[in-house]
Amino acid sequence: MSNFDRHQLTRGALGALSGLLAAGAALAAAESAAGAVRPQAGPVVAVGGAAIDRTPAAVKDWAIRSFGTNDKLVLQLGILVVLGMLAVALGLLALRHRRTGAAGVLVFGAVGAAAALSRPDSAGVLDALPSLVGALAGAALLWILAGRLTPAGAPSAESESESDSAWDRRGFLAAAASAAAASAAAGALGRALTSSAGKEAVASRAAVRLPLPGSPARPVPRGAALRVAEISPFVTSNADFYRVDTALVVPKIDATRWRLRVHGRGVTRPLDLGFQDLLRRELIERDITLTCVSNEVGGPYAGNARWLGVRLADVLREAGVRPPSRGGPADQLVSRSVDGMTLGTPVEEVMDGRDALLAVGMNGEPLPLEHGFPVRMVVPGLYGYVSACKWIEDLELTTFDAYDPYWVRRKWARQAPIKTQSRIDTPKPFARPKAGTVMIAGVAWAQHRGIERVEVRVDDGPWRDADLAVQAGTDTWRQWSLPWEATPGPHTLTVRATDGTGAVQTARRTRTIPDGASGRHSVVITVD
């Protein structure tokens, strides 16, 4: 390889590095600016949120199924990888067309600014600032670094002569090192500002002292929690409770500043409530199992917790709301989150006597930040996408004909009662238990109807009744178990449940879209 070729190869590699350094500087400057404005205005979060909003429901469902609660991390990493590849391309472009390369960085800044302004929770023009600040920093750095790689006296690097090696190597390395250090400092500043912005929320949560419930939950009855290894515990801990939402940054809300507005059709007395207003009301405590509509048959997105909150129906009645069955003009309750999410819940179900809550506590402590602090909705019997609004700030009474919430606009069903489901927790798929007595066990749920029966089938044999744990309530899941004398060889285990109405879990398999998956859970094992 000639000296000329080596110089060109080195120069190209440094051009690619220039693009990456410019991208890093842009993101660091943007993060610092977002820390001063608000974390949700950062370009990666804004672009990621816009991507989520525009992603077809089937793709979102695939992402949740494939990556679980890590879907947001995967999305953000994907955005960074794409940005990295584009940064390399712009760095190489800037070697020959310095202005065009720098202008390309500005274009991406404009895209980030547009994404931030398009978000449902946009706070206004200031949300564009982080992307624009970052773009200016990145474009300026790319201009400087590309200049160091341009041979002296050559406005563009289009010469193919040996003189192309006469670029400022020392100046480039000094500028690159300075840029890397400045980017690290700006990134650290941004993280510090973001952390500081969330400290008020963390402090307000730490200061919450939940009152004793006026209507406490009954003690979990003896026998409701089976002593079977690997079965899902009756109460899901806060740390293990599933989280499925579209928030790339968990909203951090100072409870002392939180407000809830209740308004809309049929509201004769609009309400504006603070967190302490709720705590001064009678609180009720209930064990309720929640289920995500993205839960596949046998999937993990169900959990049971002890919730503390205010009866939502009482709040609505105080506002003058009547259900449609009593002449009320509104049949849909639209809940809005601080991050712009909208959910639509049937007014009739909210006010039919079930324990629909504005929840403030979860398993004996204030709601965790990621689960909706300071207040969220909990409505037993309905999938979360039509009932479990986290970080709630607004309740509007309207009709299903007048307004389509977020998920309905993306082809999910307006009405979504939870389907009867059962799951085998043990043995796990592809397990290899020893021949002899093997315990088959799991959970079943049909919130607001309860579970009356669970049956298990081995291969194509007859259905056998499982032993049921004591039912703690119709709004919670129910554990079950069946001892099986396992014989060597491959086997397929299948489970089905019967709910409190006598309806048997269907064998017909459907996708999660548009109103939840159906079918029976099976696992394949090999007995040694």
Give me the secondary-structure category: alpha+beta
For the CA atoms, what is the radius of gyration? Answer: 28 Å
Side by side, the strands of the main sheet go 2-1-10-5-6
The proportion of strand residues reads 15-25%
What does this structure look like?
The protein is globular and about 80 Å long. It has helices at residues 3-37, 43-54, 57-67, 71-96, 98-118, 129-148, 169-206, 275-279, 312-318, 347-350, and strands at residues 259-264, 271-274, 284-291, 302-311, 332-337, 342-346, 357-362, 365-366, 376-378, 392-398, 421-426, 436-445, 451-458, 464-465, 467-468, 478-486, 489-499, 522-527. The termini are far apart. The protein is an alpha+beta fold and 528 residues long. It is 34% helix and 21% strand. The strands form four sheets. The chain has a five-stranded mixed sheet with strand order 2-1-10-5-6. α5 packs antiparallel against α6 and α6 (129-148) packs antiparallel against α7. Residues 153-165 have low confidence and may be disordered. The protein is built from ten helices and 18 strands.
